[in-house]
Amino acid sequence: MLITLDKDFGDLVFKERRSGDAGVILIRARASGPESLGAILLAALAMPEPWHDVFAVVEHDRVRITPLPPR
C-alpha cells in the first residue's frame, strides 16, 4: 500500500497505467500537522473499505474508492 499526499500518483495510475499490486491512498484533507494527518489516515483505515487493489482518495468528509486499472 502506498500512502501519499502527491496528486501526481493519480496520473501515474490512471493515465500511464502504472499501478502496483497493493493499492494507493491519496490524502487530500488539510491537516494542521503530522498528528492531525495521522488521525485522518487512521480514521479512514478504520472504515470497512476494501483497501487492496484500489486507488482511494481520503478527504475530511468522505473516501472515494476506484478499482486500479488492469495492467
Characteristic key phrases:
single chain, alpha/beta, 71 residues, 4-stranded mixed sheet, 25% strand, 2 helices
Characterization of the model:
The structure is a single chain. The protein is an alpha/beta fold and 71 residues long. The chain has one domain. The chain has 2 helices and 4 strands; from the N terminus they run βαβαββ. β1, α1 (8-14) and β2 form a beta-alpha-beta unit. It is globular.
Which helices and strands occur, and which strands form pairs?
Blueprint: E1 2-4, H1 8-14, E2 23-27, H2 34-45, E3 54-58, E4 63-67
Parallel strand pairs: 1-2, 2-3
Antiparallel strand pairs: 3-4
What's the short version?
With 71 residues, the protein is an alpha/beta fold. Helix content is 27%, strand content 25%. The chain has one domain (2-67).
The helix-strand sequence is EHEHEE
Which strand-content bin applies to the residues? 25-35%
| Total helical segments | 2
Task: Characterize the main sheet.
Answer: 4 strands, mixed
**Mean pLDDT value:** 83
| Structural class by secondary-structure content | alpha/beta
Helix content: 25-40%
Order the strands across the largest sheet as they lie in space.
Answer: 1-2-3-4
How many DSSP E strands?
4
Cα shape: globular
